[in-house]
């Protein structure tokens, strides 16, 4: 009899799963939509990557006011987070890569600190609707209070310069993840997109110290933007699970910024999480468009660092990008593309290793998920494809929070020993 019990259990399970799927299949489109919106409301929704601090440092930019995304280009403010039922977000203090000398590093540090201060100031100015979050549990506590949780990250380790003590300084300011590198190499690591190619063969010797220091303090190590060697070095070295705060699957869309199946599997072994991003070029392959590409390249070639621009120059630049997009439109990326990537990562790495990091205000935003007010459309597509509430909960925040807890637990254990 003993041997039959697991069999009977399995049979019951199969029948009940079968029924659930059948029920879902019988729902009309409108009923699926309603179910998705209910799920979206119930689960904790976390977006791990927004470059909104670039906006926050603009004089007069008010996060408590709803901005028109088409007119202003802005993708995130508190009213739109509420509309989209986005419970938590990591605002990344992003500093573009520049000259790697003492002057460059101190300018980068000053700008990074300015952005962090602007995040903290914004949360305290708007404490009736948002709260600064430092620990994984804070997101749930703030959600219970009906407030959005605001976490801080840093995109690009450049403001660390070559001074390890800066890592702890940023931790003390509330930073809970650091993207080691951006679109060019820095003193820490190699980028996936540096035009000169790799320089350190992944992590530099200093970069190894930075990862260890992040482990010690309880800061999540973010490998997005790094080249493949950086990923392999980091996943091997880090004592705590790592994240890719905004990256997609390379075998679905062949882009250097995306992760190969081998990397996805290692991410699963590591216990980490890949946060899917809403950047069109990482979501679908567009046919080449010479006119568009050269117009974009010309604009970028003449561009000053954003931090050094006047308000007028910034507005003019945004308008110029919009004009090019209008004149030479690229085929849109859609929510279906996003969930194709999710399906693939789930297949290769498992449901416990995928999440969402939209990259709003940093180029993210697609048809159907143009800004923070539309993120529920991802949940609608997930429900349509048969994902359960339990699975959606993991994708939308459960997985990231698990990693965050493990990163903190490692730091705590380490501190006691
Ligand atoms: Zn980025």
From TrEMBL:
<dbReference type="Pfam" id="PF01244">
    <property type="entry name" value="Peptidase_M19"/>
</dbReference>
<dbReference type="GO" id="GO:0006508">
    <property type="term" value="P:proteolysis"/>
</dbReference>
<dbReference type="GO" id="GO:0070573">
    <property type="term" value="F:metallodipeptidase activity"/>
</dbReference>
<dbReference type="InterPro" id="IPR008257">
    <property type="entry name" value="Pept_M19"/>
</dbReference>
<dbReference type="InterPro" id="IPR032466">
    <property type="entry name" value="Metal_Hydrolase"/>
</dbReference>
<protein>
    <recommendedName>
        <fullName>Membrane dipeptidase</fullName>
    </recommendedName>
</protein>
């Amino acid at each position: 009899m003993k041997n039959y019990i697991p069999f009977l259990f399995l049979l019951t399970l199969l029948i009940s799963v079968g029924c659930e799927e059948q029920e879902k299949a019988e729902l009309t489109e409108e009923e699926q939509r309603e179910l998705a919106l209910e799920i979206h409301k119930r689960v904790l929704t976390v977006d791990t990557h927004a470059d909104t601090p670039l906006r926050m440092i603009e004089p007069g930019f008010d996060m408590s006011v709803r901005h028109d995304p088409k007119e202003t280009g802005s993708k995130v403010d508190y009213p739109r987070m509420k509309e989209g039922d986005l419970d938590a977000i990591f605002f990344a203090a992003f500093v573009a890569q520049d000259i790697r000398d003492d002057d460059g590093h101190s300018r980068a540090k000053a700008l990074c600190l300015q952005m962090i201060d602007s995040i903290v100031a914004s949360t305290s100015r708007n404490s009736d609707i948002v709260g600064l979050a430092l620990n994984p549990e804070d997101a749930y506590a703030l959600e219970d209070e009906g407030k959005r949780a605001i976490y801080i990250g840093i995109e690009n380790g450049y403001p660390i310069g070559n001074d390890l003590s800066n890592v702890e300084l940023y931790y003390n300011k509330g930073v809970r993840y650091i993207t080691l590198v951006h679109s060019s190499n820095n003193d820490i690591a190699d980028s996936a997109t540096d035009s000169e190619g790799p320089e350190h063969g992944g992590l530099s010797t200093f970069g190894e110290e930075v990862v260890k220091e992040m482990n010690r303090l309880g800061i999540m190590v973010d490998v997005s933007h790094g080249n493949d060697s950086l990923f392999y070095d980091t996943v091997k070295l880090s004592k705590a699970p790592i994240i890719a705060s905004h990256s997609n699957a390379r075998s679905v869309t062949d882009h250097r910024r995306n992760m190969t199946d081998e990397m996805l599997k290692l991410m699963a072994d590591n216990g980490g999480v890949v946060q899917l991003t809403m950047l069109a070029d990482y979501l679908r392959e567009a046919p080449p468009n010479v006119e568009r590409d050269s117009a974009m390249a010309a604009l970028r070639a003449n561009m000053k660092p954003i931090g050094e621009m006047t308000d007028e120059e910034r507005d003019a630049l945004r308008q110029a990008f919009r004009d090019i997009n209008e004149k030479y439109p690229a085929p849109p990326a859609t929510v279906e593309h996003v969930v194709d990537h999710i399906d693939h990562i789930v297949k290769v790495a498992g449901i416990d290793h995928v999440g969402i990091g939209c990259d709003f205000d940093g180029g993210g935003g697609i048809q159907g998920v143009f800004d923070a007010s539309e993120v529920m459309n991802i949940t609608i597509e997930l429900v349509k494809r048969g994902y359960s509430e339990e699975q959606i909960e993991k994708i939308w925040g459960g997985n990231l929070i698990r990693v965050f807890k493990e990163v903190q637990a490692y730091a705590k254990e380490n501190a006691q020993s």
